[in-house]
Recover the amino acids of this structure.
């Protein structure tokens, strides 16, 4: 049964608004990356497309790292739900470390591309290599935003703002983080199989 929004408390209305804002933001991010991958597909029919360019192995390894970070965020949420704030803090810190490691690995992936002679721009760049840099770079920017949201969650957690009955901020942060994880998996699979 749908609850009548006119009888919700102010807190319930605020919580509902925060959730809706997150979902609208995720939908707009999804559209941005759908546009990028659509442009990638259209461009792949060009004569100057470099089908033999392979993704750096570091991109695949970073996909594993970011998936593990999703698991650690889930563990942080489960810990707060059962009123274990210290365990939750541990899992959040581990998630942060894995997020930073992911970004470092992405830049190592860029270095692998450069060592293969695949540049973002210039005479030795290709349309495909430019797309790879743009999509991975756009994702990195959003992971940085995810890390900023995680730092806010950590700050509030340390200040004791989250309890077993009130942890909306942590939950919203986790949703954003999981979205970024799934987005990177999609991009890696997409760029691997769409030659």
């Amino acid at each position: 049964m749908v609850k009548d929004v006119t009888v919700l408390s102010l807190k319930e209305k605020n919580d509902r608004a925060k959730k809706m804002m997150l979902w609208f933001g995720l939908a707009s991010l999804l559209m941005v990356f759908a546009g990028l991958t659509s442009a990638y597909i259209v461009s792949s029919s060009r004569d100057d497309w470099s089908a033999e360019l392979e993704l750096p192995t570091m991109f695949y390894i970073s996909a594993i790292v970011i998936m593990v970070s999703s698991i650690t965020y889930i563990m942080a949420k489960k810990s707060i739900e059962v009123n274990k704030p210290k365990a939750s803090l541990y899992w959040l810190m581990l998630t942060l470390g894995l997020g930073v490691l992911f970004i470092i690995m992405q830049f190592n992936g860029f270095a692998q591309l450069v060592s293969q002679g695949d540049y973002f721009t210039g005479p030795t760049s290709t349309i495909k290599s430019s797309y790879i840099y743009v999509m991975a770079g756009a994702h990195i920017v959003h992971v940085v935003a995810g890390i900023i949201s995680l730092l806010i969650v950590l700050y509030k957690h340390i200040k004791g703002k989250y309890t077993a009955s009130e942890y909306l901020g942590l939950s919203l942060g986790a949703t954003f983080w999981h979205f970024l994880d799934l987005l990177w998996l999609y991009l890696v699979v997409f760029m691997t199989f769409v030659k």
Notes: The two ends are 47 Å apart (CA to CA). The first helix runs from residue 10 to 43. The mean pLDDT is 92. Helices lie at 10-43, 57-81, 85-115, 127-158, 168-193.
